[in-house]
Write a structure and sequence with these properties.
The complex is a heterodimer of chains A (about 100) and B (about 170).
Chain A lengths: L3 H21 L3 H25 L4 H31 L13
Chain B lengths: L1 H22 L3 H21 L3 H25 L2 H6 L7 H20 L19 H10 L3 H22 L5
Helix pairs in contact in B: 1-2, 2-3
């Protein structure tokens, strides 16, 4: 039996790597991939605590998180295609139309 | 003991490939490493007897979302991005902030060596059939959220189609 803390440490490590990816990368596609890493870290925590409390509610929440990830990926990638068509770039710091 | 060894191997694979995801130059390589991370996380679900979530992770994430990602990575021009700098100007500040975040979360979890202080676990047995239990929960207690999730997916589908269309009439 692995202590629940180990899973939560793993989750926080994966979450931090995802946050570093979102904050430091310039490529919008890799920023979206880092968001997927963050969502997976959340899922690890949900499943670990669901296992600890011997109930499936946490796993049901993880399924909803995966549903959201699918919706977010579809809309985000559609946005990237529209953006690339209009500005010919996938760099986050060249998309600064609203910055004065 | 075997369980702990499996956990350590899977978490090392997950963390190392996650680091590769955010450091590779080529977005295609990042996507492949993300597939490795997702497989390792799926293995961790399996280790916790969440068999249904393991199947969902493989079919939906690896089979669906990652194929979508690879399609878009290859649609947009990757040759230009390869010649440019990988990291944004603020990467040092961002790294310090993220490590600080990890330190704070780690300190809170460590809690002077006491761990999480979770409430006592209830004295019920875990459901024997994971898939059956998840299905029961989804279609009995979580009926309305399932319907809302289906509406969300419909909205996302329409939104993605509108966004990727060439010109709005």
């Amino acid at each position: 039996m692995i202590p629940t803390e180990y899973y939560i440490f793993l989750g926080s490590g994966l979450f931090t790597i995802g946050v570093i990816g979102v904050l430091t990368r310039r490529n919008v596609l890799i920023i979206l991939m880092s968001i997927e890493l963050i969502l997976n870290a959340v899922n690890i925590n949900l499943v670990a605590l669901s296992q600890y409390f011997r109930s499936v509610d946490g796993q049901v929440f993880a399924i909803f998180v995966i549903t959201d990830a699918a919706a977010e990926a579809a809309v985000g990638l559609g946005l990237i295609i529209a953006l690339f068509r209009n500005k010919e770039t996938v760099n986050a710091d060249e998309i600064d139309l609203l910055k004065w | 003991m075997l369980e702990l060894g499996t956990f350590i191997v899977l978490s090392v694979i997950a963390l190392v490939s996650a680091i590769f995801v955010i450091t590779r130059h080529n977005a295609v390589h990042s996507a492949i490493w993300l597939v490795v991370t997702l497989f390792a996380v799926g293995g961790i679900f399996l280790l916790q007897h969440a068999e249904f979530l393991f199947a969902v992770q493989i079919i939906l994430y690896v089979g669906g979302i990652m194929v979508l990602f690879l399609f878009v990575v290859m649609l947009v021009d990757i040759d230009v991005a390869l010649k440019q700098a990988r990291f944004a100007r603020q990467w040092q500040v961002a790294l310090v902030t993220a490590v600080l975040l990890l330190a704070i979360v780690g300190y809170a979890l460590y809690n002077h060596g006491q761990g999480l202080n979770l409430p006592a676990r209830p004295m019920v047995n875990a459901p024997a059939q994971n898939t059956q239990a998840v299905g029961m929960a989804l279609y009995q207690n979580y009926m309305l959220p399932v319907e809302i999730a289906s509406v969300l997916l419909l909205v996302a589908m329409v939104g993605a189609v509108i966004m990727a269309k060439r010109k709005l009439e």
